[in-house]
Design brief:
The chain is an alpha+beta fold. The chain has 15 helices and 21 strands. The strands form 7 sheets. The chain has a 5-stranded parallel beta sheet with strand order 6-9-12-5-13, sandwiched between helices. A 4-stranded antiparallel beta sheet has the order 14-21-19-16.
Length: about 425
């Protein structure tokens, strides 16, 4: 649990007629003068405790290995239970984020992205944040949750092609047409500029002065930045133009980019598994995603594939239909075949009898030719020789044998291959 506290200012700037306002308006004005301080020590402590638990369980398994032999049958059930417990620890569940908004109320934000405490801390400094992440990483949802945590209104606009989408305009009848940006800038709130890298660069320049100088020229008057105005820009790229995956993105002016603190917002796969609720399916989706990334295939498999696919499977749709509608959706057959061929782990075998000694550990990402381990054996003269076992693939090691005696042809490792 991470806790945030409201910090009362020494000289709050409150309206003189506050006592005349409705209760909810009075509370809103008071909260606007306060700051949220997020304490994430419990997140860190939880991770440290998790490491200690994993280490303790690993030690138990090693102790049991020493006791194996004639008692192997009696200990097998105990080993299975410990291994199950160890895997549950390693796939830790996302932590709930709880913010304290005042002296009596705790706001439970539920399960959040692992970067959420960092984002809240940056916003508490009143700096503008540019969060960069792939489609479906939860950037918009994170911004909504930040507004909720800070106790302020949420305002949103997508990619803009004209500065009037930000500044507003005066219509033919002389009426001022306002915007979400102006509402947040003038009255306070969190403004999310979504897909800023898909916006027309000249339109983005329109609010540079607002972010840098705390003033903005709107059609009817100049407005000063509200002290409770927060700004998040969300994008798929760093504003340097189109890339292999996001070809419709524009290059933004350096002056615009200089107004922001940048924060990487990658997929949180622990959160993805938890939200999907189907660990087998989400594990498969994540494996497909890794192969796509390593083979540089231009195709997006976001956490939505895990979440939507789990819902369709639970509603009785066949696995084949779900994969076609959620995972492959328009991917060419050659690329699909290449992915499917690499989903099943590739086996690494030894070609001599002897004692296998591993040199790498499970979940390591390796290149073709990487040393997996050595096999120590005796030649016909009784001399001890060492035979290197190298990987024929590059990918992630998903299993590897412990030091033990092996026979020629025996499998000693499995690799989730990303292609040769």
């Amino acid at each position: 649990m991470s806790i945030g506290k409201i910090k009362k200012p020494r000289k709050p700037d409150l309206p003189d007629n506050l006592y005349k306002k409705p209760l909810e308006d009075a509370i809103y004005h008071v909260v606007q003068t306060c700051e949220v301080v997020v304490e994430d020590s419990e997140w860190k402590a939880s991770d440290e405790n998790l490491k200690e638990d994993i280490s303790a369980l690993d030690k138990k398994l090693k102790d049991i290995d020493k006791r194996l032999g004639g008692n192997q049958g009696n200990l097998s059930d105990e080993i299975k239970e410990l291994k199950k417990e160890l895997e549950n620890f390693k796939t830790r569940q996302p932590l709930d984020l709880i913010i304290k908004l005042d002296n009596s109320t705790l706001e439970d934000l539920g399960k959040q992205h692992s970067q959420m405490p960092t984002l809240l801390k940056i916003l508490a400094t009143r700096l503008n944040v540019y969060i960069v992440g792939p489609a479906g990483a939860g950037k918009t949802y994170a911004a909504i949750q930040c507004a909720k945590a800070l106790g302020i209104p949420f305002h949103f606009t997508g990619a803009v092609a004209s500065e009037f989408k930000l500044t507003g305009f005066i219509d033919a009848q002389g009426r001022i047409v306002s915007t979400e940006f102006r509402k947040a800038f003038e009255n306070g709130g969190l403004f999310l500029f979504d897909e800023i890298d898909a916006s027309y660069p000249q339109a983005v320049l329109a609010f540079n002065a607002a972010l840098a100088n705390d003033y903005m020229d709107f059609p009817d008057k100049q407005v000063r930045r509200h002290e409770k105005f927060y700004c998040i820009a969300a994008a798929n790229t760093y504003g340097n133009g189109a890339d292999r995956q996001y070809i419709g993105r524009n290059q933004l002016d350096a002056a615009s980019l200089d107004r922001f603190v940048f924060l990487d917002w990658k997929y949180d796969e622990n959160l993805e598994r938890d939200l999907a609720g189907n660990h087998e399916w989400s594990g498969y989706v994540q494996k497909v995603r890794r192969i796509i990334q390593m083979q540089k295939i231009r195709h997006v498999v976001s956490p939505r594939a895990s979440i939507f696919g789990a819902k369709l499977l639970s509603n009785g749709l066949s696995r084949e239909i779900v994969e076609q509608t959620i995972l492959w959706k328009g991917l060419d057959e050659a690329s699909k075949r290449k992915i499917v061929e690499n989903i099943a782990p590739k086996q690494i075998t030894v070609n001599t009898d002897g004692k296998f000694v591993p040199k790498i550990k499970m979940n390591d990402v390796i290149e073709k030719g990487t040393l997996i381990g050595n096999v120590e054996y005796q030649d016909r003269y009784g001399n001890v020789r060492t035979l290197e076992v190298n990987s024929s693939y590059h990918g992630m090691l998903v299993s590897i044998s412990k030091p033990k005696s092996v026979k020629s042809g025996e499998t000693i490792a499995e690799i989730e291959s990303y292609g040769n």
